[in-house]
Amino acid sequence: MDVRLLGPLEAEVDGVSVVPSAGKPRQLFALLALNADRVLTVPVLMEEIWGEAIPRSAATTLQTYVLQLRRRISAATGGHARGVLVTRPGGYLLEVQPGQIDVDDFDRLAGAGRAAADRGDARAASDLFGRALAQWRGPALVDVRLGGLLELEVLRLSEDRLAVLERRIAADLTLGRHAELVPELRVLVARHPMHENFCAQLMVALWRSGAAWRALEAYQRLRTTLVTDLGLEPSGRLRRLQHAILVGDGEKTAT
After folding, report:
1. Backbone angles phi, psi at 80, to 5 degrees
2. Which of 23, 106, 116, 239 has its CA 20 to 30 A from that of 126?
3. Alpha-carbon separation of residue 110 from 42, 128, 134, 145, 184 (angstroms)
4. How far apart are CA 39 and CA 46, in angstroms?
5. pTM for this one?
6. Where are the beta strands (DSSP E) in the chain?
């Protein structure tokens, strides 16, 4: 089974989709897939699907949803659904093989990228982080209704994606890819107007591309946003970067 969660929900066996179209079974499958090879208890699954308003019929309805999922998996696998969506005491788990879920591939590649960055291999880090980010096809589970548990998982994944993107850009800056990073960073800063690290990376890319005044302009836009919306000044790190650009101290613009 190939399961893709980093974008619209997709799951296929030999090209045959096993994803249900109905909202709650779809939600159930997404939570099981995000926690593949781990038992999720019946109360946890109920909480995700119904929140605090769990109906009296919830246990029976949940069993019906599991049966619907098994039927779809069975039709695609030739009758092996119970070996994929497994009943355990008190709950269920989705059993998968290594490399079958895009989230696992993302985590594996991101971890390898961090290891490469830690040993100072910027080229390998950039490549590995880029391959990790290529697992994403849009916002995670964009077409799935999110209960409380899935909402937290999606938030975690989104934060992980931004962190990996930030580290890939840092590796690219180390490799001297300043000018080619500017358009991407402009978009990121526009989407995340209070994200200081993206602003710092844009400032460095602009300064090293010979556009110091544009780097200072980016700083001023961030400062105005922070002061106006939160009543806060930029961090000391960003202020030091601004000063380094003002005085032309290239050694202090490393990020």
Report:
1. -110, 30
2. 239
3. 32, 7, 11, 27, 20
4. 14
5. 0.90
6. 2-4, 10-13, 16-17, 40-41, 85-88, 91-94
Residues 6+ apart with CB under 8 A from 138: 6, 7, 8
118, 170 Cβ separation under 8 angstroms: no
pLDDT at residue 165 greater than cutoff 80 = yes
Phi, psi of 202 (to 5 degrees): -65, -45
Instruction: Check pLDDT > 60 for residue 157.
Output: yes
Neighbours of 78 (CB within 10 A): 9
Residues 109 and 248: their CA atoms lie apart, in Å, by: 37
The CATH H-level superfamily of 178-255 is: Tetratricopeptide repeat domain (1.25.40.10)
What's the rounded Cα separation, in Å, for the pair 136 and 5?
8
CA torsion sign, 86 to 88 to 90 to 95?
negative
Residue 59 CA to residue 176 CA, distance in Å, equals: 58
Q: Which two tokens stand for residue 250?
A: 């290239």
Sequence-ordered list of residues with C-beta below 8 angstroms from that of 211, at least 6 positions apart, any chain = none
User: Which single residue is written with the structure tokens 């590649």?
Assistant: 109
Give the domain ranges of the chain: 2-94, 178-255
Token pair for residue 81? 């659904």
Instruction: Indicate the average pLDDT of the chain.
Output: 93
